[in-house]
């Protein structure tokens, strides 16, 4: 069987939306199929002599390399450690592989590397191995960075999501993607907003200490909140209902979205976590999150519902309900 032989890869295949999921399912999962990979969690959980290790990898191709609130070095660390943290792991070690374009300036390389090192210190991880490749001028775009990470799982998420469980998010959505669009100077957008790029492991460890009813966590990066919620419900016998008025969105992001015709639910974040918690523990977990610097704006944005099954619905501010689908195309490429 040759599922991709007659297709060409488009930018939308890298968007994290429906085409990315199709590519993973039809091309990669079809070839690599095994019980660990098939879980499709943010990190693989592998058991080594009785210890559960989380293992993940992420390539960073963001444009521009420097933007308000971060740069590719910081992103390369936080992108990977957050994928470890959301499966309940304590991030420990990362690798760092640079693909550099011939002619790239040493000053930028230094600045990116300093930032990456500082982010690793902040996140409490060591860069313990790496790789350097250089491609000819015009065959790359400055620099791409891949990081892989491992951590120890101190907690296994039960994933027994039930009707009535609450959906939480630790703050406003869309800041990262709007900051990137604005920094690129594309689409005529000039908004004073910083990326939310941040390491989530400390916030998450407080949450996991506070409650044994954390069912599921995911960082809504590419494809935004809408994609993450759809990933949770797809193929399941429950749905999710979110309340538009409860979702924290900065005025600047709201304004940029109405200007560009974007839906903030689909915008990328780099310092947000969606948490599903058992109803009984909700207020306690919300209080715990709000007491943490990265969780001050935590909101309960919705809940797990019986129907429609496998669907994400949004109750609008004026009281209507609409289905929130998995995105098909891409808003903008190379935002992470
Ligand atoms: Mg993730």
Structure description:
The chain is an alpha+beta fold and 336 residues long. It is 29% helix and 25% strand. The chain has a seven-stranded mixed sheet, with helices on both faces. A five-stranded mixed sheet has the order 1-2-7-5-6, with helices on one face. The chain has two domains: 41-153, 60s Ribosomal Protein L30, Chain: A (2-Layer Sandwich); 166-323, Phosphoribosyl-aminoimidazole Synthetase, Chain A, domain 2 (Alpha-Beta Complex), CATH 3.90.650. 41% of the residues are buried. The chain is globular. Helix 3 links the parallel strand 5 and strand 6 (126-135). The structure holds magnesium ion (MG). Magnesium ion is lined by residues 42, 83, 218-219, 221.
Shape: globular
Largest sheet: 7 strands, mixed
- Fraction of residues in β-strands: 25-35%
Structural class: alpha+beta
Number of domains: 2
CATH architecture type of the largest domain? Alpha-Beta Complex
**Rg on CA atoms, Å:** 19 Å
Low-pLDDT segments, ≥5 res: none
Ligand inventory: magnesium ion
Average pLDDT for all residues? 95
CATH topology of the largest domain: Phosphoribosyl-aminoimidazole Synthetase, Chain A, domain 2
The CATH superfamily label of the largest domain reads PurM-like C-terminal domain
Total number of beta strands: 14
Q: H/E order of the elements? A: HEEEEHEHEEEHHEHEHEHEEE
Major β-sheet strand ordering? 9-11-8-12-10-13-14
| Helical residue percent band | 25-40%
């Amino acid at each position: 069987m040759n599922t991709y032989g007659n297709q060409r890869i488009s930018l939308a295949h890298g968007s994290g939306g429906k085409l990315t999921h199709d590519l993973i399912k039809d091309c990669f999962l079809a070839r690599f199929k095994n019980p660990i990979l098939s879980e499709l969690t943010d990190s693989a959980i592998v058991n080594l002599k009785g210890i559960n290790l989380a293992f993940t990898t992420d390539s960073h191709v963001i444009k521009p390399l420097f933007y308000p609130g971060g740069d590719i070095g910081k992103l390369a660390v936080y992108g990977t450690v957050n994928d470890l943290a959301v499966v309940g792991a304590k991030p420990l070690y990362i690798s760092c592989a640079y693909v550099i374009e011939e002619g790239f300036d040493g000053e930028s390389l230094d600045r990116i590397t300093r930032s990456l090192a500082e982010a690793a210190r902040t996140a409490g991880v060591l860069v313990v191995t790496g790789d350097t490749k250089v491609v000819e001028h015009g065959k790359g775009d400055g620099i791409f960075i891949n990081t892989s990470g491992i951590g120890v799982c101190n907690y296994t998420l039960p994933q027994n999501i039930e009707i009535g469980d609450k959906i939480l998010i630790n703050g406003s959505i869309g800041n990262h993607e709007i900051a990137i669009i604005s920094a690129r100077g594309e689409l005529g957008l000039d908004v004073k907003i910083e990326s939310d790029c941040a390491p989530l492991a400390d916030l998450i460890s407080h949450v996991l200490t506070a409650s044994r009813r954390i069912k599921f966590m995911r960082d809504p990066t590419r494809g935004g909140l809408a994609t993450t919620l759809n990933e949770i419900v797809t193929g399941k016998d429950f749905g999710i209902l979110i309340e538009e008025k409860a979702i924290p969105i900065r005025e600047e992001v709201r304004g940029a979205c109405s200007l560009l015709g974007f839906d903030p639910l689909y915008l990328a974040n780099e310092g947000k976590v969606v948490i599903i918690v058992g109803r009984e523990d909700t207020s306690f977990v919300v209080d715990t999150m709000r007491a943490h610097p990265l969780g001050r704006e935590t909101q309960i944005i919705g809940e797990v519902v019986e129907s429609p099954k496998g669907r994400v619905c949004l109750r609008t501010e004026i009281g209507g309900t609409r289905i929130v689908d998995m995105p098909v195309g891409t808003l903008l490429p190379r935002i992470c």
